[in-house]
Design the sequence.
């Protein structure tokens, strides 16, 4: 059976619905977007970032797989470079052996369209897709997750990921109800913060959009990094649209002594029955920008803002050593190797020498498919 890969159009939506139903009945946990127009970054004309979707169709017009590209201009060693992040591929190879190689076929299709390709995610080395791209000699760079627990009792009692067996639930309940967990987590974060470098206090102001002040910050710091995605005002307003359709980011303008030093985008997500966080209220520092030496002040201000809102915990995925150090200085636990930056060979050549580039590589949750989670 021949498979062709085509752009996702409105005429394919019913076939995508049928594909999603088969994936649901097969309990794969996967599917694809029900609408052909991207809900987050739908427009390409005149934009520096957008998303486009593709479908794998068989001879009968049935959808057998899908993937998406998020295209975004990057600044790499002083040059502007078009780069693409991929989402997926999702295929019925999870259900039927005859489609077992479709995922690899779709990966090759992605590379044909955008050779300067990467993915930022995977949740660690256990990912089957990650194992496949390692076998294809892609560069895979492990990066940390930064975590701060603000309400230990709720965290111990409601974190679904940590409570997956009766013995674990019993142990966590004992820690919660005896107070030992509360004391331990509070002391851990305090000890980490005392070890960190002190930063000059800065203030966070909620703003409705990014304006010329954000362009000034971008221009002042873009070449302080070896590699990062464009973060000027226009691009950030596309990524965090004012209509709030998705993601529902809170924009924080960070000042010190009345002067703009940076910004952060934070999320405050009250969750219910989440497979990882259960019923916790989860904060996320989804994006941030400043000169590297001001990272500590920006993270401190963003953390205080989320603490005042009452979130139970705050997390963030980061790659740049200065930003990771800024989280550590605020008492965050830095968990190594929790997200991977997987880079296609053509992109790897641009980033060489990578041992040097990674010291100035700035990645946040925003640089993946969208900061909907960790």
Sequence:
């Amino acid at each position: 059976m021949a498979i062709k890969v085509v752009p996702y159009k409105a005429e394919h939506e019913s076939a995508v619905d049928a594909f999603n139903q088969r994936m649901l009945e097969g309990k794969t946990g996967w599917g694809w977007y029900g609408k052909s127009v991207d809900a987050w970054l739908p427009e390409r004309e005149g934009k520096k970032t957008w998303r486009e979707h593709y479908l794998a169709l068989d001879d009968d017009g049935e959808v057998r797989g899908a993937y998406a590209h998020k295209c975004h201009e990057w600044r790499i060693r002083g040059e502007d470079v078009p780069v693409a992040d991929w989402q997926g591929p999702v295929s019925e190879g999870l259900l039927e052996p005859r489609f077992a190689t479709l995922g690899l076929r779709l990966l090759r299709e992605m590379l044909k369209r955008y050779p300067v390709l990467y993915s930022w995610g995977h949740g660690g080395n256990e990912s089957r897709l990650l194992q496949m791209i390692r076998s294809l000699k892609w560069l895979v760079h492990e990066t940390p997750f930064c975590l701060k627990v603000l309400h230990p009792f709720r965290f111990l009692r409601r974190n679904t990921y940590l409570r997956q067996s009766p013995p674990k639930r019993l142990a966590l309940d004992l820690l919660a109800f005896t107070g030992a967990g509360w004391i331990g987590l509070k002391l851990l974060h305090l000890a980490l913060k005392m070890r960190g470098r002190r930063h000059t206090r800065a203030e966070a102001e909620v703003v409705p959009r990014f304006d010329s002040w954000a362009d000034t910050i971008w221009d002042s710091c873009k070449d302080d990094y070896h590699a990062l995605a464009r973060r000027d005002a226009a691009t950030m307003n596309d990524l965090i649209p004012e209509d709030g359709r998705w993601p529902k980011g809170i924009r924080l303008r960070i000042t010190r002594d009345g002067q703009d030093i940076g910004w952060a985008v934070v999320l405050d997500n009250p969750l219910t029955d989440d497979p990882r966080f259960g019923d916790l209220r989860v904060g996320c520092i989804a994006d941030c920008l400043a000169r590297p030496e001001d990272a500590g002040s920006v993270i401190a201000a963003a953390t205080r803002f989320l603490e005042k809102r009452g979130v139970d915990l705050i997390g963030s995925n980061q790659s740049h050593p200065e930003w990771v150090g800024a989280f550590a200085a605020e008492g965050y636990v830095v968990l190594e190797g929790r997200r991977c930056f997987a880079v296609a060979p053509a992109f790897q050549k641009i980033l060489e020498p990578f041992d040097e580039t990674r010291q100035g590589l700035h990645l946040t949750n925003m640089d993946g498919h969208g900061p909907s989670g960790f």
Remarks:
- Residues 150-318+326-333 form a domain with the Aminopeptidase fold (CATH 3.40.630.30).
- The longest helix spans residues 180-195.
- The radius of gyration is 21 Å.
- The chain has a mean pLDDT of 90.
